[in-house]
Specification:
The structure holds two protein chains of two kinds.
Chain A lengths: L1 H14 L17 H9 L2 E3 L9 E3 L2 H8 L4 E2 L13 H7 L13 H10 L4 H5 L2 H17 L4 E2 H6 L1 H11 L6 H12 L5 H24 L5 H10 L5 H32 L1 H9 L3 H15 L6 E5 L3 E3 L2 E3 L4 E4 L1 H5 L33 H18 L4 E2 L8 E2 L6 E2 L3 E3 L1
Helix pairs in contact in A: 7-9, 7-17, 9-10, 9-13, 10-11, 11-12, 11-13, 13-15, 13-17, 14-17, 15-17
Chain B lengths: L1 E4 L9 H5 L4 E3 L6 E3 L9 H10 L5 E4 L2
Antiparallel strand pairs in B: 1-4, 2-3
Classes of the chains: A alpha+beta, B alpha+beta.
The structure holds protoporphyrin IX containing FE and iron/sulfur cluster.
Iron/sulfur cluster binds next to helix 1 of chain B.
Chain lengths: 414, 65
């Protein structure tokens, strides 16, 4: 009897799909076929991950929204049960990681998040449109004056978010070069680990120094605002520096990838590119940003959560302590939410995508990211109407392993 | 139609302000949503419906009265 049970259990384990799943060769934008299959068969089902545990995999759009707003679903990786860590390293450091906005639940999360939310208010972000336009124009000037072909990643995609975050944080112009070099190095997975670590340390030290200066000589920027909260005793100095580094990291690679891969999608779909380039209506670019966020869904690892109580949903019972993986790409290609989801269509209403997540942890920087992308997509193709790929898509090197999807370089010519 | 805002639920992401700036604003210090128009004119309702659909906290409701 025990043997049959064990046999049945191991059969079930064998049948259980392994996550993450590979994308199909030659299909750089679609979710892995096995993920789409899961969504079609059962949008809430179990998968097996690296440590042998079997969290729930949520692939349906509506189910994701229900669970990501459910107070019984926790982002706290110290909660009891089987939190589905992305890697062994993340599991090891969880214990030593302080309480941050990414790993807390209400009410602590609400407190921490409201503390840093001021600079991300929609009207304050909108005031950055002109400075961002200037940054983007300057980078395109430099690209056009430099060698042709160029790598769009180094010419535009990486420097835009880095310069914008410098602006937001209040890094003086003279230090932009230092800041950009080190932030690229800190995040470059191809760089030697000791170089990346040295760059991160250099950035933290630099931000801590700068915060010190803003304590006595504040300006109109995020670091000064946090310095004010440090003085008022609402936030510790190290929390403020942590937050500055977090904004840098969370906003850098993500925005850069949306610039490079968004451009690749448009170059591969010339009729869509023409709509974005030729329309007089600014709403078209706004819509294109949403559609490309949906279509690409670059956060490819799946959000990680754990249930704190039993939850009955979608004909299943999630038990307290069960892990949850929320695969955003799967939901953004859910035909029930987006008919013809496998087609990129910049005119579709795509705003209800989950590319920034959903619920209380939905991306803090989303208004800023949207603005950066609106300015880039609204400028690059108009200023460089002959822009085209200087390589074949099959030659591009996509990053399948990172938290966010990406491409190592994007050679373009004009 | 009347708009209801469940303020304690609001996560202050400002999606409503983007969808419907005539009806919503954000508090200056922490970004929590403020209702500018409890009973918006008909031509504003599409924007409000959009806000209801995209609010990440499901904190906005549009009710018949
Ligand atoms: C297109 C670019 C971006 C994408 C696709 C993106 C995506 C995401 C996603 C999916 C989450 C949710 C994580 C979760 O629920 O566990 C998130 C959270 C976050 N993002 Fe972004 N992001 C982008 C740009 C930015 C920028 C520009 C910044 C900052 C300047 C930023 C800062 C953050 C922070 C601080 C969080 C944590 C929020 C929380 O846990 O409460 N992101 N982002
Ligand atoms: S969209 Fe929802 S959560 Fe965001 S500010 Fe408006 S009411 Fe608050």
């Amino acid at each position: 009897m025990a043997e049959t049970l064990a046999g049945a259990a191991s059969d079930a384990a064998e049948a259980m799909p392994e996550f993450p799943m590979p994308r199909a060769a030659g299909c750089p934008f679609a979710p892995p076929p096995a993920v789409e299959e899961l969504r079609e068969q059962n949008p809430i089902s179990k998968v097996r991950i690296w440590d042998g545990s079997t969290p729930w995999m949520i692939t349906g759009h509506a189910l994701q929204r229900a669970l990501l707003t459910d107070p019984r679903v926790s982002a706290n990786d110290k909660s009891p049960g089987n939190f589905p860590f992305v890697t062994a390293y993340r599991q090891q450091i969880a214990e030593y990681t302080p309480e941050l906005i990414v790993n807390t639940d209400a009410p602590e999360h609400t407190r921490l998040r409201r503390m840093v939310n001021g600079p991300f208010l929609v009207k304050r972000i909108e005031a950055m449109r002109a400075p961002i336009q200037k940054i983007v124009d300057g980078l395109i000037d430099d690209m056009l004056a430099g060698p042709n072909p160029a790598d769009l990643l180094t010419a535009l995609a990486l420097p835009v978010p880095s310069l914008v975050i410098s602006e937001l944080l209040g890094v003086p112009y003279a230090d932009h070069e230092f800041f950009q070099r080190n932030s690229s190095l800190a995040l470059d997975r191809a760089a030697a680990p000791e170089d990346s670590r040295a760059a991160s340390t250099a950035l933290s030290t630099y931000l801590d120094d700068l915060l010190g200066k803003k304590l006595t000589d504040p300006g109109d920027d995020v670091l000064s605002e946090m310095a004010g909260r440090v003085t008022a005793g609402e936030m510790s100095r190290s929390e403020a520096v942590h937050m500055g580094v977090a904004m840098l990291i969370a906003g850098h690679e993500t925005t850069a990838t949306m610039i490079s891969l968004g451009t690749l999608v448009l170059l591969e779909n010339p009729e869509q590119l023409a709509l974005v380039r030729d329309s007089e209506d600014p709403k078209v670019v706004v819509g294109a940003v949403e559609e490309l966020l949906r279509y690409l869904s670059i956060v490819q690892v799946g959000l990680r959560r754990v249930a704190t109580e039993d939850i009955e949903i979608g004909g299943q019972v999630i038990r307290a302590g069960d892990g949850l993986i929320v695969d955003l790409h799967a939901a953004n290609w859910d035909p029930e939410a987006f008919p013809g989801a496998d087609q990129v269509d910049v005119t579709r209403p795509a705003r209800k995508h989950n590319a920034f997540g959903y619920g209380p942890h939905q991306c803090l920087g989303q208004s800023l990211a949207r603005l950066e992308l609106q300015v880039v997509y609204g400028t690059l193709y108009r200023r460089v109407p002959t822009l085209r790929l200087a390589a074949r898509v099959e030659e591009l090197e996509f990053d399948h392993d990172g938290t966010t999807y990406g491409v190592a370089s994007l050679p373009v010519t004009w | 139609m009347r708009v209801e805002l469940d303020e304690p639920k609001c996560v202050a992401a400002g999606q409503c302000v983007m969808a419907s700036p005539e009806v919503f604003d954000q508090r200056d210090d922490d970004g929590v949503a403020i209702l500018l128009e409890e009973q918006p004119a008909d031509e504003l309702l599409d924007g409000v419906r959009e806000a209801v659909a995209i609010c990440p906290a499901a904190a906005i409701r549009l009710v018949d009265q």
